[in-house]
Design brief:
With 247 residues, the chain is of the alpha/beta class. Helix content is 34%, strand content 17%. It comes from Paenibacillus cisolokensis.
């Protein structure tokens, strides 16, 4: 039986402030075999891991990521909004995560957050950093901006890409083949066994998001998905262990 990748969504974000080194480290402890995170760019061109374009929700500033330097960003507290115990956590850089993951066998899903703000040179910068660590074979680049995915595939054909979408995409495996993507990162409502099988026949993997309910996890495992993105990697790790499909 094939293994199923256990992607910790923004790290172990059910237990730690999302997209922080604490969340990434915790995901390793909880049995994840992959990490999903979001990449944006500061005003001085540094790659940082944060979901929202605004810093308000997770770092308490009304400014946008694109308008602050890395130095300014790392003065902000990105942990205490979640729990006072995490006070002092910072918005990490992509390099920090790759340094953590490099000695492991983790697969890293980098979501480019360039659907609302078009970060010039984001694709090139991410690919350069990945190649610097020699991790091209352990990276999946995903985005809701599919033009960006095509650009990434042109720049780095050796790096896998994953199409992010919500629901209603007709024959997404055909679309994936058209844009050169190896994976479908679909909202889990848009995943049924028949579609998983048709995609698999064409070499396209399903990695649905964001799945936190154990019963839904079981159904997706039974459907044959290649990976699941979850806030609670320990729940998924337990199910995969019981099913003998751990990554």
């Amino acid at each position: 039986m094939k293994s199923v990748l256990n992607f910790a969504h923004r790290g172990a974000s059910g237990y730690c402030p999302e997209n922080t080194m604490a969340a990434f480290r915790r995901s390793i402890e909880l049995g994840a075999t992959g990490i999903e995170t979001d990449v944006q760019m500061t005003s001085d061109g540094q790659l940082v891991l944060i979901h929202d374009e605004s810093l308000k929700r997770t770092a308490g500033s009304s400014r946008l990521v694109k308008d602050v330097t890395l130095e300014e960003l790392q003065q902000l507290d990105a942990g205490s909004w979640f729990d006072p115990a995490f006070e002092g956590e910072r918005v990490p850089t992509l390099r920090e995560l790759l340094e953590l993951a490099a000695p492991t066998s983790f697969v890293i899903n980098l979501e480019l957050k360039n659907g609302i703000i078009q970060y010039e040179g984001l694709e090139e910068a991410v690919i350069e950093e990945v190649r610097r660590f020699g991790m091209s074979d352990r990276i999946i680049i995903s985005s809701f901006n599919h033009y960006s995915l095509v650009k990434c595939k042109h720049l780095a054909p050796e790096i896998r890409t994953g199409i992010l979408y919500m629901e209603g995409l007709y024959e997404p495996w055909e679309y994936a083949a058209r844009v050169g993507a190896e994976a479908l990162h679909a909202y889990y409502y848009a995943v049924i066994p028949e579609w998983v099988a048709q995609a698999a026949e064409r070499g396209i993997a399903y990695h649905p998001f964001t799945v936190n309910d154990a019963d839904v996890m079981r159904k997706l495992i039974d459907a044959g998905v290649a990976g699941i993105i979850t806030d609670y990697p320990d729940r998924l790790a337990e199910l995969l262990h019981d099913a003998g499909t751990g990554g």
